[in-house]
Specification:
The structure holds two protein chains of two kinds. By secondary structure, chain A is of the alpha/beta class. Chain A is built from seven helices and ten strands. Helix content of chain A is about 35%, strand content about 25%. Chain A has a six-stranded mixed sheet with strand order 6-7-8-3-9-10, with helices on both faces. In chain A, strands 2-1-4-5 form a four-stranded antiparallel sheet, covered by helices on one side. In chain A, helix 6 links the parallel strand 7 (about 160) and strand 8 (about 190-195). In chain A, helix 3 (about 95-105) packs across helix 4 (about 110-125) and helix 5 (about 140-150) runs parallel beside helix 6. The longest helix of chain A has 16 residues, at about 170-185. Chain A is globular. Chain B is α+β, with helices and mostly antiparallel strands. Helices cover about 70% and strands about 10% of the residues of chain B. Chain B has helices at about 1-20, 25-60, 80-85, 100-110, 115-120, 140-150, 165-205, 205-215, 220-260, 275-300, and strands at about 65-70, 70, 75, 90-100, 130-135, 155-160. Chain B has a four-stranded antiparallel sheet. In chain B, strand 2 and strand 3 form a beta hairpin. The longest helix of chain B is centred in the C-terminal third of the chain and has 44 residues, at about 220-260. Classes of the chains: A alpha/beta, B alpha+beta. Chains A and B meet through helix 2 and helix 3 of A and helix 1, helix 8 and helix 9 of B.
């Protein structure tokens, strides 16, 4: 599903964020991406969403070489990926419902279909009763669940999360992680960047460990 | 898909209206600036085209009025025979004789001074020959011919009537050019105003743009609300401009009519014609869209993965 071949990323300021990274994540896998702050976790996720381009090497997602995509194909590629952010990235001036519907609106989905799918997504994260609320009136855990609902509403093949439990207490973090597991069971490939080792220890799954932009060990399938 | 597309456009249209409504003072100022930028050259344009139309009506074939002496040392002059002599000049195309009686009649009809004219003891008008030169549009040649005719012994004076009209036309042309230059400057002004408004909109919605970009919104999708800002602001500006222009021309109507009466003319500036109204409305709205598009695209370059 996701294949990195000797990928390096150097930012224009000369900082080497990733160095010679190779790995393969099969369809339906559940993987943690760990490492200290600044190890390159976010950069790796950004390469998958095509927010950044690799300086060297190839990134293949669903057999597409991302460096070959341009224009509207980038947008189309991002629609196959659901992203969850540590700071949620919700629009404060829109209701929970409107926030979750955004990926469907940009995809040009029919209005009644949007309603139906937004309700289904909110139901899965247990926030159906708060659809009309504004994000600011929700707790941190609830806001993160809104972010997750938005990430899955477009039925992505891949779910990426950048420190999704970073700001949450352990009980809430467990809840959120359980949500990701649920989505993984319906064959979505999940990659979660975290330094919450308590969560990593709870699950028996693949781990990509980054140190200073280099991959340490890889307990998933090797490329 | 077409239905969704249409619904989306409608939604963005009303959303944009709502946003403009949320900052009424800023929106009003922008609209006003655009309206003034349109109204100013437009009022000038209307005045100039009216004057231009007037002079075109007057233009006709150039003619020289040759006023004859009634008497020379050699005795009385026969105007008909003098006319025949003028016709022998190759520069003269045609000659028309206006007798003093005809002249007086025409003058009293046109001037409205019948009573005063009837009180005159005798007809003060000299016999007149209207000469149509073969020089066509050549202003200099016609002028020279008039001088040449004036030096003939039986001619009192020869006046080239069109001289002042050419001067007027030349002046109108200067103002016309000024209107064109002004229109371009004002167009550039509108471009800058819209560009600034859109840039402000982008800054206010930077996080929204970032999120839309992340969840797979296309360039077209991100651009759309800003294009609507450009279009709606310009459309509102144009509508206000019609109001300003109409009011200005209305205020000019009476003074111009008074002035025209003093010249025995029916001249009026009138109002801007419907095709011009439509053309300016469409062009300015498209200008707004163009300005918005250039501004958004400059920003969108930053979103491209690098």
């Amino acid at each position: 599903m996701i294949r990195f071949s000797q990928v390096s990323k150097r930012y224009p300021n000369g900082h080497d964020a990733l160095n010679d990274i190779s790995f393969f994540l099969p369809k339906g896998s559940f993987t943690f991406l760990t490492g200290h702050s600044g190890a390159g976790k976010s950069t790796l996720l950004k390469l998958i969403t095509l927010t950044e381009l690799a300086s060297r090497g190839q990134v293949l997602v669903s057999d597409k070489n991302l460096s070959k995509l341009g224009g509207n194909k980038i947008a189309a590629h991002r629609r196959t990926i659901g992203s969850v952010f540590q700071d949620h990235k919700l629009l404060e001036d829109r209701t929970v419902e409107d926030n979750v519907s955004l990926p469907l609106v940009v995809a040009g989905v029919d209005h009644s279909e949007i309603r139906r799918r937004v309700r289904a997504a909110l139901d899965k994260v247990g926030l159906l009763n708060k659809a009309k609320r504004y994000p600011i009136t929700l707790s941190g855990g609830e806001q993160q669940r809104v972010g997750i609902a938005r990430a899955v509403v477009g039925r992505p093949k891949i779910l990426l999360a950048d420190e999704p439990t970073g700001n949450l207490d352990p009980a809430l973090a467990d809840e959120i992680m359980q949500l990701f597991l649920n989505f993984n069971q319906v064959d979505i490939t999940v990659l979660i960047a975290t330094h919450d080792y308590r969560q990593i220890d709870r699950f028996d799954c693949g781990i990509l460990s980054l140190t200073n932009g280099r991959l340490q060990n890889h307990e998933g399938d090797n490329a | 898909m077409v239905k969704v597309w249409f619904a989306r456009h409608l939604q963005v249209f009303f959303e944009t209206l709502g946003r403009l409504w949320q900052t009424p003072v800023a929106s009003m100022m922008t609209t006003l600036v655009i309206a003034i930028a349109i109204a100013l050259p437009l009022v000038l344009y209307q005045i100039v085209t009216s004057v231009d139309r007037l002079s075109a009506d007057w233009q006709g074939a150039p003619q020289i009025s040759v006023f004859l002496k009634t008497q020379t040392e050699n005795g009385p002059i026969d105007p008909i025979e003098s006319g025949q002599r003028l016709l022998q000049n190759p520069m003269v195309e045609d000659v028309q004789y206006v007798s003093p009686e005809q002249g007086l009649e025409e003058f009293s009809e046109m001037s409205g001074f019948q009573a005063a004219i009837e009180a005159l003891p005798e007809n003060p008008l000299p016999p007149l020959l209207i000469v149509f030169p073969a020089t066509g549009e050549d202003n200099m040649a016609s002028s020279q011919l008039a001088d040449q005719l004036a030096s003939l012994p039986f001619v009192d004076t020869a006046v080239y009537d069109q001289q002042w009209l050419y001067r007027l036309t030349a002046m109108v042309n200067v103002v016309k050019r000024a209107v064109v230059v002004l229109a371009f400057l004002m167009g550039a002004g509108i471009l800058l105003v819209i560009s600034n408004t859109v840039r402000l909109g982008i800054t206010n919605r930077a996080s929204e743009i970032e999120i839309i970009d992340q969840v797979g919104g296309t360039r077209t999708f991100i651009r759309r609300p800003f294009l609507y800002i450009g279009a709606i602001q310009c459309l509102l500006g144009t509508l206000l401009a019609w109001l300003v222009t109409g009011l200005t021309l209305y205020l000019l109507e009476n003074p111009v009519a008074e002035l025209a009466t003093l010249y025995q003319s029916q001249f009026s500036i009138g109002y801007v014609s419907v095709p011009v109204v439509l053309a300016v409305t469409v062009c300015v709205t498209l200008l707004g869209v163009l300005a918005a598009r250039i501004t958004v695209d400059r920003y969108l370059v930053k979103l491209r993965p690098s």
